[in-house]
Amino acid sequence: MKLNSALLGAACAFAIAPAAFAERGTDGEVKLTFPQAVSIMNPYLSSGTKDIYAASMVIEPLAGFDDSGNLIPKLVSEIPTVENGGISEDLTSITWKLIPGLLWSDGSPVTSADVVFTGQYCMDPAGGCAQLSKFEGVASIEAVDETSIKVTFTGPKPNPYTAFVGATAPILQKAQFEACIGAAAPTCTDQNSMPVGTGAFKVTGFTVNDTVSMEANSNYRDPAKPAFATAVIKGGGDAEGSARAVMETGEFDYAWNTQIPPDSQAAMAAAGKGQFVVAFGTLVERLEMNMTNPSADLPEGERSTAMHPHPFLTDINVRTALSMAIDRDILREVGYGAGGKPTCNIVPAPAAYASDNTACLTQDIEGAKALLEASGWTDTDGDGIRDKDGAKLSILYQSTVNPIRQDFQALIKDWWSEIGVETELKAIDPGVFFGGDAGSPDTFQKFYADVEMYANNFDGTDPEAYLTQYKCDKAPSPENQWQGENMNRFCDPAYDAMVTELSSTRDPAKRAEMAKALNDMVTKDTRIVIPLVHRGTLSAHSNALGGVMINAWDTEMWNVADWFRVK
Amino acid sequence: MLTFTLRRLLLAIPTLLFISLIIFLLVDLAPGSPMSEIPLTVPPEVRQKMIAALGADQPVFVRYILWLRQFFWVEPAYLLDGWFGTDLAGDQQRILSWQSRSPVFTVIGQRIPQTLTVIGTAYLVGILIAVPIGIYSAYRQYSLFDQLGTFVAMIGFSVPTFFTGTLFIIIFAVWLGWFPTKYDTTLEVTDWASFIRQMQQMAMPVMVLGLANAAAISRYMRSSMLENMGQDYVRTARAKGMTERTVVLKHVLRNSMIPVVTVIALGIPSIFGGAIITENLFGVNGIGAALIGAIHASDLPMVQTLAFIFAVLIVGFNLIADILYGFLDPRIRYD
After folding, report:
1. Separation of alpha carbons A50 and A27, rounded Å
2. What is the DSSP track for A438-456?
3. Dist CA B70 CA B77 (whole Å)
4. Are A352 and A16 in contact (CB under 8 A)?
5. Residue A218: CB partners within 8 Å, gap ≥ 6?
6. Average pLDDT over residues B19-40
């Protein structure tokens, strides 16, 4: 409710806005605060969202996404499609046309050479480019003329809007970064912290892990924008402190990622200085079921591998009962408040790809008990824990150290004990859990537990790569140094076949159908994954800042040029 | 005294080398990966390439030798180049942070001023509050003032800074609106108005740390004063007809300062180390905030270099404290 009125308010403010920002640089300073400080302004070398968002105010891609996930042109005059001839009939190439007369903030013209260079920069094998997957399947990038760029793919590409699309793949200026390609990339400190861009702002000062100072780009393509003359991003502290600086003391205009407990959200909103806004992307907090035996009695190298199936989680009735016992709405209320929605899907959005699977939303403890009873899981020795053929329903349930996750663990443990399942909880440092160190037993890939909980999402609006993660050959194992994304070691030839089919299907409606079917295969049909909460990103902005339209599909600063001071 | 100093300095070299190796191994063996903060949407192959580009896949001893060379040869060479315009370092690789890809020493250089102003002021304020309280508490032992001082000191000792800090933010920033909650590092003091703003933004972190520092030092001061108040020379001084003022502030205070000065000197390295929690809470971009940020991101070069600099400072100030002893108390000489 609060959210709706907030959005409505923003929309109204936006509608009456044009009168307010008639001229560039008339609204003074806009102050942003991020709970994690900005380390680098080059998304290709960055390891975090904070850097990508900050950089997005300065450097821009050819096209981006608006707040409902639609492609919008940024540096090009239109989005290439098959209809307008921008994409070849066989879907193997895409041709982008830059807006004529486009200038860098230093006054030099933006040309196709800059775009081609950016591609080379990221695809250089020695550069360690963080956004390399954006350029997957790219065979060549060539400049057709001064303003046209042709990207050719190794095969038909149903979704060619990857390279140079979205805040993670912006265009770098060739003249500035020419000497920084390959192994030299990390040594170009000045370039990496003060890139020349085409965005609404340009960097004037940068202190590592602290402050980015910016001023309006005098060569920005819209002469009336941005309304603000300067911008500052102050980083550091925590989510609570950032939210407070916007909502209670009014020192800042915008705070990104203010994920704080629901009761604090309400208390801060009551101060009346600002509002929380939430954007729902594709992030889902979920339980992943281990299909292999993680028992410590097995020798190292055989634990949690396909050699030994799990003693009881391989039984679909057990997995279903575990899912039925959970009340997802209580989890949402405790953990995320307005920043979450209960869900049964791993692909919760965009709407076209989201399955109408809602059966799991109602908790059914009795049903879960009955199901276990009927499938032979009974408490034969009277210790309160169900068993069958010597296997006890005793679960090791791991997650990362995080107050919300520990609340979830405690609640779920309680519900599971009601249905006769014993649970042992484990919390691991997130740096270790997500660190992927093959030498550590506690990574989420090794999965030396029965159930693990974390959140995952996909980049952009197309779930293909994300759904590919549940293919048989993506299972982490000693053979691939425990790298891989199929944590469950789920293996279904029908699933693999459909993923392969999806990658060669071009019709959007059919793609959506298949994505839904794949989502259902791992969720409601098999309960390999038990989705819990669809998480949004919660940010806060002051009532004195207008024009904010929060966006889950691209950077939250996607329309920073339109932000203005409410007078 | 000179030979003692020289011997200690020479002994410091193997000590520091050993410490640097231990730090390096400890930090390296600690779990975590520089890739743990990148989103899960980045595939494992790309992660592998990113680690290789950082040089983080090299064996630990190769990295240790490289780091030693960078720390003791390349970085000083850069410093000299900066001072005298020479070209000793050429384009040799400096110690680069994995998180920001900028030289570790540039980051430290950016952050030392904030740490010294904020943490240094807090230390100074702490001393200025603690010494008079300690003296008066001891002089009027078990008086109301002494009880109150003990109470405040106990609070300063036992209440953690993250709690007092948050409390101060709620009282002084949210309710009263006197001070900002986030430290503005771009503020330059050029006139009276900006000086006032600087004082305002320093007020809360200085109060929080000052309280904690004052608590410890005032207890040392008090007990040292009490010990000396009962000495024979004090009775003699009083018997000679000296005023209470001269007895307490001249005779007793001077002798009581010896252990307190040591405590203060040994606390100085902690100023350079910054205050991890307080800096983070108030957004002061000091060394402490840099260290905790680097630890979170598994930015090993940054953590190693900072930890080693702390080690150098601690060894250095221990030596200084030992030498100061000799000057303050002629009975203690090392030859």
Report:
1. 25
2. TT-TTSTTT--SSEEEEEE
3. 9
4. no
5. A24, A105
6. 81
* pLDDT attached to residue A47: 65
Q: Exposed, middle or buried, B198 (CB in 10 Å: 0-12/13-18/19+)?
A: middle
- The reported pTM is 0.85
Q: Which among B256, B270, B252 is positioned nearest to B311, based on CA atoms?
A: B270
Tell me which residue of A127, A134, A40 sits closest to B50, measured CA to CA: A127
What's the distance, CA B273 to chain centroid?
A: 3
Answer whether B109 touches A (CB < 8 Å): no
pLDDT tens-digit readout, B251-285: 888 888 888 888 888 888 777 776 888 888 888 88
Beta-carbon count within 10 A of A111 CB: 18
Distance CA B125, CA B123 (A): 5
Following CA atoms A315, A317, A319, A324 in sequence, which dihedral angle do they give, to the nearest 10 degrees?
A: 180
CB pair distance less than 8 Å for A432 and B49: no
Question: How far is A444 from A432, CA to CA, in rounded Å?
Answer: 9
Q: Which residue has the tokens 């001084």?
A: B237
Report CB contact under 8 Å: B185, A213. no
Say if residue A350 is preceded by a cis peptide, omega within 30 of 0. yes
Q: In angstroms, rounded to a whole number, what is the distance separating the alpha carbons of residues A563 and A199?
A: 13
Query: How far is the C-alpha of B321 from the C-alpha of A12, rounded, in Å?
Result: 67
Dihedral sign (CA A465, A467, A473, A479): positive
Q: Which residues of A touch B53 (CB under 8 A)?
A: 126-128, 183, 185-186
Task: Report B:182-221 residues touching A (Cβ under 8 A).
Answer: 182, 184-186
Helices (H) and strands (E) in chain B, counts: 14, 0
- As a whole number of Å, the CA-based R_g of chain B is 24
Residue A1: the pLDDT is 40
Element (H, E) at B197: helix B192-229
**C-alpha distance from B285 to closest chain A C-alpha (Å):** 6
Cα separation values, A357 from A68, A360, A361, A395, A488, Å: 22, 8, 9, 26, 21
Token pair for B259: 């252990």
pLDDT tens-digit readout, A481-534: 888 889 999 999 999 999 989 888 878 889 999 999 999 999 999 999 999 999
Best A121, A134, A206, A208 residue to mutate vs chain B (most B CBs within 10 Å): A208
Q: Closest to A192 (Cβ–Cβ): which among B37, B101, B174?
A: B101
CB < 8 Å to A248, chain B: 173-174
Residues 6 or more apart whose CB falls under 8 angstroms from that of A245 comprise A33, A251, A252, A255, B181, B182
pLDDT of residue B56: 80
- Residue A390: CB atoms within 10 Å: 7
In chain B, the domains with their CATH numbers are 19-105 (no CATH), 106-328 (1.10.3720.10)
DSSP string, A517-562: HHHHHHTTTT-SEEEEEEEEEEEEEETTEE-----SSS-TTTTGGG
Regions of chain A where pLDDT drops below 70? 1-22, 47
User: How far apart are the C-alpha atoms of A276 and A273, rounded to whole Å?
Assistant: 10
Q: Which helix (H) or strand (E) covers residue A138, if one does? A: strand A138-143
A455 to chain B: nearest residue by CA?
A: B40
The total of other beta-carbon atoms located within 10 Å of residue B10's CB is 10
B289 near A CB under 8 A: yes
E-strand stretches of A221-330? 230-235, 254-255, 274-289
Cα(A294)–Cα(A486) distance, rounded to whole angstroms?
15
State both tokens at A250.
């009014």
- Would you tell me how many other CB atoms lie within 10 Å of the CB of residue B132? 11
CA atoms within 13 A on the CB side of A52: 23
Q: How many CB atoms lie within 10 A of CB A354?
A: 19
